[in-house]
Task: inverse folding
């Protein structure tokens, strides 16, 4: 260990990853007159081994802050274990510094061996966290973001081939394994936030077992919460463990009876804290996104009536899925105020890893969350309100760990925490749709890594449903392996149904339009969260984009209008204003633009046919519906009573059109619709719908899928359509789409 440290300190390595960008000298040197003393000082400057440039004064300032982190005292122990072992587990609290410091130490290790085994990659579950950590670590290492340190998240790559340390979402590292199964570009892989139990992290944990055997020089670091240590140790065997504890005490206050009227309890606590005059920001963990919007309106309204002498109350809604600005420390302007503005952050479970500020002194926790749980029998998510896990409760408590003191208000009893909360958050592998995961596993099996030992075993019923869906989508051959269609589908970072629709659009000459639809439904919603009283004005604006053929076509209209505005405007400000005036989310539309560009790049790379856009013609409208039906024939519903009550074709759930659907706005309800999304909740809404005809459905749905549908009035109507088709067309359809026998489908449903 000492030889490594000495080598790193003594050698002045000239790193090949240095950039031509200028790094400014410390302020003390900038002010020198160029005299002999200043020249000598320049010669004595310590050089950054990662880029060969002198360290800035900011580097030393940040170094002092890093040395105060709880993880810092474990650096020697970690480096020693890293040298002597292939796997190291680090157990630490949320604010101990393991996510930012450990990757830097691993980069030092890779530098010491001249990158002969590759660089460092650190996975994150959430893309916002990956971006923020990369920015912070680049600052701490005194290097340039996008060069020595970078990040890779879905549809955004801020790295070069020479990047030493990259942060990425776990699903992006998983996708990288399709082209590089043994991760040859990396000498160290760090799996962070393993306790989040995402599907991609579980897959990586399993696949890396085989990769480590094939590459003895590869190092694996696993960062997790203390509650997961025993499970990980039994999964990987006897591996070294480094435990890090945070040192600051937190006062926990349990409030019995607060759950019955949690909103009133939250409001009362916020204003009591504000009136007390105690300094510090407040973070409120709510159950769902809808609660964020409701609380935001109430707190803003009530806060406007507060005594200004108490200071401003700034409400910050931190919505899931949106790439919004993270909650960070106060800037210098705020610090100079005589009365600090107090910030109230409203978030859900997704915000647990996004709170970076040391100014948080109060956390209010409702103790429940709304989770999406997939039901494979009906192919739909259910929105279920459940208690959070003990691990999540501990993470929320640790947000206060960086403060000198803090107070956690739990809107539940201590008995509720011990009896009703599970120790760990349920694994996503056991609650989500596994179709995309199974498609990936089938693809990776080509490289011999498909026999995966999962730490959290997927439900057999979910696996069977995923295999059945892939079979319906023609992604599997008669032996249960990936077909040519399936291999191409796996190239797209999309849901398999959406990938199939894009492939079908090549046949139906509507690729341009289908790429736009795919980008718009993959990006966050393009419609803004409406403030109270703005509904009528927003609907009036949105009506100008409506298309009579359905919501998928409306999304094309919105994207085209956004594109036209961007091309004809001279400034980004004008585009932002246009979006705001039309109650549209500019960041979501920008993201759709990025997604579409990447999808188009994939189309070109694999040389798929690309027809000229023809949006607006009747033939093109029909072709778009054919392409959509080719992927989404399993998501069809029929209005059973003419009043907007839609019965699913595959099960007996009844749903209504979403209020933002064009059909809801115009009050014109089609009998048959194809929908993009359906969730079972208080309001069973189907989202993004377009009208279809039963004749078109019968032309494009696989015959054996129709045969396997449960008996219903809708199926009888479709059978009548079949009976009216000419015998010739029926024979052609069976030849084209029914080469597979229904009896063999069950046999093929085996995960290799």
Result:
């Amino acid at each position: 260990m000492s030889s490594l440290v000495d080598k790193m300190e003594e050698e002045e390595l000239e790193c090949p990853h240095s950039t031509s960008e200028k790094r400014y000298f410390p302020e003390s040197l900038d002010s020198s007159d160029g005299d002999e003393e200043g020249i000598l000082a320049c010669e004595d400057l310590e050089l950054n081994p990662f880029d060969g440039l002198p360290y800035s004064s900011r580097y030393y300032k940040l170094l002092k802050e890093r040395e105060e982190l709880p993880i810092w005292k474990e650096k020697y122990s970690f480096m020693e274990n890293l040298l002597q072992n292939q796997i190291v587990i680090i157990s630490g609290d949320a604010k101990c510094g393991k996510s930012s410091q450990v990757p830097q130490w691993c980069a030092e290790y890779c530098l010491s061996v001249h990158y002969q085994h590759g660089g460092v990659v650190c996975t994150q579950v959430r893309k916002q966290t990956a971006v923020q950590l990369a920015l912070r670590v680049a600052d701490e290492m005194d290097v340039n973001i996008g060069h020595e340190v970078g990040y890779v998240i879905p549809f955004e790559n801020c790295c070069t081939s020479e990047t030493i340390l990259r942060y990425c979402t776990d699903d992006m590292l998983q996708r990288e394994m399709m082209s590089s199964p043994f991760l040859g570009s990396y000498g160290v892989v760090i799996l962070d936030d393993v306790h989040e139990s995402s599907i991609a992290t579980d897959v990586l944990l399993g696949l890396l077992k085989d990769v480590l055997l094939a590459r003895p020089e590869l190092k694996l670091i696993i960062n997790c919460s203390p509650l997961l240590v025993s499970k990980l140790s039994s999964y990987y065997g006897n591996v070294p463990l480094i435990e890090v504890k945070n040192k600051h005490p937190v006062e926990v206050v349990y409030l019995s009876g607060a759950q019955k009227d949690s909103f009133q309890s939250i409001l009362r606590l916020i204003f009591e804290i504000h009136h007390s005059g105690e300094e510090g920001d407040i973070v409120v963990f709510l159950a769902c996104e809808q609660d964020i919007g409701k609380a935001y309106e109430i707190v803003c309204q009530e806060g406007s009536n507060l005594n200004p002498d108490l200071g401003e109350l700034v409400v910050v809604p931190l919505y899931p899925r949106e790439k919004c600005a993270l909650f960070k420390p106060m800037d210098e302007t705020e610090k100079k105020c005589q009365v600090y503005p107090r910030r109230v952050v409203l978030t859900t479970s997704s915000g647990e890893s996004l709170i970076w500020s040391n100014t948080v002194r109060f956390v209010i926790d409702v103790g429940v969350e709304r989770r999406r749980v997939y039901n494979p029998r009906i192919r739909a998510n259910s929105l279920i309100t459940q208690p959070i896990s003990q691990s999540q409760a501990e993470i929320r408590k640790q947000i206060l760990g960086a403060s000198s003191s803090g107070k956690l208000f739990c809107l539940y009893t201590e008995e509720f925490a011990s009896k009703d909360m599970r120790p760990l958050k349920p694994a996503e592998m056991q609650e989500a749709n596994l179709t995309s995961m199974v498609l990936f596993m089938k693809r990776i099996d080509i490289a011999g890594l498909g026999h995966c030992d999962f730490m959290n075993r997927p439900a057999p019923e979910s696996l069977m449903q995923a295999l059945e869906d892939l079979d319906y989508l023609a992604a599997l051959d008669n032996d249960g392996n990936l077909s040519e269609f399936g291999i191409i589908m796996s190239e797209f970072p999309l849901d398999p149904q959406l990938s199939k629709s894009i492939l079908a659009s090549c046949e139906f000459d509507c690729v341009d339009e289908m790429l736009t639809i795919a980008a718009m439904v993959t990006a966050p919603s393009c419609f803004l969260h409406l403030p109270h009283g703005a509904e009528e004005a927003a609907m009036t604006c949105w009506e100008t984009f409506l298309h009579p053929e359905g919501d998928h076509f409306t999304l094309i209209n919105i994207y085209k209008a956004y594109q036209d505005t961007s091309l004809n405007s001279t400034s980004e400000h004008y585009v932002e204003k246009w979006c705001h005036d039309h109650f549209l989310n500019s960041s979501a539309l920008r993201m759709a633009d990025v997604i579409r560009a990447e999808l188009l790049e994939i189309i070109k790379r694999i040389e798929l046919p690309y027809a000229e856009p023809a949006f607006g013609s009747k033939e093109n409208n029909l072709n778009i519906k054919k392409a959509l039906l080719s992927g989404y024939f399993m998501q069809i519903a029929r209005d059973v009573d003419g009043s907007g009550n839609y019965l699913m074709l595959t099960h007996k759930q009844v749903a209504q059109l979403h209020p933002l659907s064009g059909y809801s706005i115009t009050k014109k309800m089609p009998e048959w619709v194809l929908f993009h999304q359906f969730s079972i909740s208080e309001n069973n809404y189907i989202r993004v719908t377009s009208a279809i005809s039963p004749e078109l459905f019968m032309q494009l749905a696989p015959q054996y899928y129709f045969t396997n549908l449960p008996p219903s009035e809708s199926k009888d109507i479709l059978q009548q359509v079949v009976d009216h088709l000419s015998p010739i067309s029926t024979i052609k359809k069976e030849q084209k789409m029914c080469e597979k026998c229904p009896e063999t489908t069950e046999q093929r449903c085996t995960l290799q």
User: Anything to note?
Assistant: The first strand starts at residue 87 and ends at 92. The longest helix spans residues 586-605. The chain is about 45% helix and 15% strand. The radius of gyration is 28 Å.
